Structures are given as structure tokens and as C-alpha cells.
Hints:
The chain has helices at residues 2-18, 24-50, 59-88, 107-129, 137-156, 160-167, 173-184, 191-221, 223-226, 231-265. The chain is an all-alpha fold. It has one domain (2-265). The longest helix has 35 residues, at 231-265. The chain crosses the membrane at residues 72-91, 111-132, 194-220, 232-252. It is a multi-pass membrane protein. It is found in: Membrane. Keywords: Membrane, Transmembrane, Transmembrane helix.
Amino acid sequence: MEIKSYQNQAELLVKEYLLADSVIPYTSVICGICACKMVYDLTQLFSNVYFKSYPGLSKLQRTEWSNRSISTFHAIFITIMSLYFVFWSNLYSDHEYAGPITFRSSALSTFTLGISLGYFLSDLAMIIWFYPFLGGMEYVLHHLLSVAGIANPMLTGEGQVYTFMVLISESTTPGINLRWYLDTAGMKRSRAYLINGVVMFVAWLVARILLFMYLFYHIYLHYDQVKQVNSLGQLLISIVPLVLSVMNLMWFGKIIKGLMKTLAKRH
């Protein structure tokens, strides 16, 4: 009976405090940061045992190894959740609910954004701490835009649909990280490296070029609803995807050059 009582009290605590609508944004961010720390530590533990090349890496390379593991886990998580919210759930359907699509949110969507925000804050802190080893100023800019673009819809519940559309682009991250892992492991001339390059090209084209075109078209179709969002939200919906699109095109150019260079070496 005592165990059952403690269980009921614990469930009540979670429902009324940790998962209450008013505190979900904050608890979810904390959960995201803690998850990053957990993945970082577990990566170091498992890599030391299962990857022969890991012990031979420098301290900074080990840090980047674990950092990329965090970003891979986040990318998989947020891609699945974003695809679910945008394309599979009815939350942002034009036919299921009345009212502007830009004002729709749920406890789960807000919690998901909080987890993602926790990741971007953690990763930004690591980038700044180890600057410029984990990334240059373009990565700092990317993460600052991501933090702003996630925090506002998470806290206000406005414009979340466009945040999830942008976050689908994180689906390209595992391929980028795999490329680094293969390079670090001395497999730059392997078939796996070539296949990964081709997959990266296709994924980037779909998730960071074509998807953003669809996003801008969606904004155009629902512009009357976008105008009802708070001023900061309107600014973020207009600027963040635009700036990220420019950065995506620049990085896409580098991917094309890298792929062509790799293909040329194999002939």
C-alpha cells in the first residue's frame, strides 16, 4: 500500500508540476540539456570499448566525436517528431481544426521544442567553449537563429508549424556526422564514404532546399494568419528561414564540390 501511495504521489507530481502547461517549456529545456549530457557520457563510455580508433584520438577529437553523437541523436529525434507534427498529425491540418494554423500547439509539441532548444543551447555552449574547433562563426550564427526561432514559438505557442518545418532539415545531420566519423577513421576512400556523399547530396536537396521552398509557399498561402502572430514571431518567421536558406545554399555548393572531387578521384 505504501509503495502504491508513493507511486500515486509521484504521478501527481509529474502531472501537476513537471508537465503542467505553464512549466513544460522550462522542464523540457532542462530535460534536453540533461539528455545531451547523458548521450555525451555514454558515447565516451561505449566508444572507448567498441571503437579501436577512439583511444588514439586527441582530446579535442574525442570531444568532437561525442559532440557529433549528441547532434546525431537530436537530429533523429527532432526529425521524427517534426515529420509527425507537420505531415502525419492533425494538429496543423487545414481541415481538422478551426482557427489560424499559426496559433495551434499542444503539450507534446511544446515539450518537443523545449527538448530541441535544450540541445541547441548545449551545443552552442560547446561551440563557444571550444571555439573555433567545433565550428566557426557560421555555426554560432546558425545556432543563435535556431535558439531564437525555437524559443519564441515554444513560449508563446505561436508559429510552431513553421519551426517544425525548419527543424525537418536536421535530417541531414546524421549524414554530415557520418562523413566526419569515416574521415576520422581513415575511410575517406571507402565505398561507404562515397555512398554517404551521394545520400548527403540528395538529403540536403530535399530537406534544405526543396523543403524550404515549400515552407515559403506555405507562408504565402497562410500569410493572413502569419500576420496575426506576435511581432517577434512574424519577424522570426520571415528572417530565420530566409537566412538559413542562404546558408543552406552556400553549404550545398560545398557539398557538390566535395562530391565531385570524391567522384573524380575514383576515376
